[in-house]
Design brief:
mainly beta; 1 helix; 3 strands
Length: 86
């Protein structure tokens, strides 16, 4: 996928179980195709094939590189990242 295709990608977070502070934190960052006709909503599956239903939508992929928020670089799904790099 190249930079021209980024507008059709939504970043989603696979969340941990609630922590002691009752907040859920990202466990893994995935990329998902945008839902048909909606650039702000993820389609049903990530690029690596996981169901997006229970994932938190972070919003459209940032323009340019990287496709994920930089603060979550260590949590990026390697399979989604491989698809994004091709």
């Amino acid at each position: 996928m190249n930079a021209a295709d980024m507008s059709g990608i939504v970043v989603v977070y696979e969340l941990d179980q609630p922590a002691a502070d009752a907040q859920r934190h990202p466990r893994r960052v995935h990329a998902a195709p945008a839902a048909p006709g909606r650039s702000d909503a993820a389609g049903p599956r990530t690029l690596c094939g996981k169901d997006t239903f229970a994932m938190e939508k972070a919003g459209p992929a940032p323009s340019g590189e990287p496709w994920y928020p930089a603060e979550y670089a260590s949590l990026v799904c390697p399979d989604c990242d491989d698809v994004m790099e091709t």
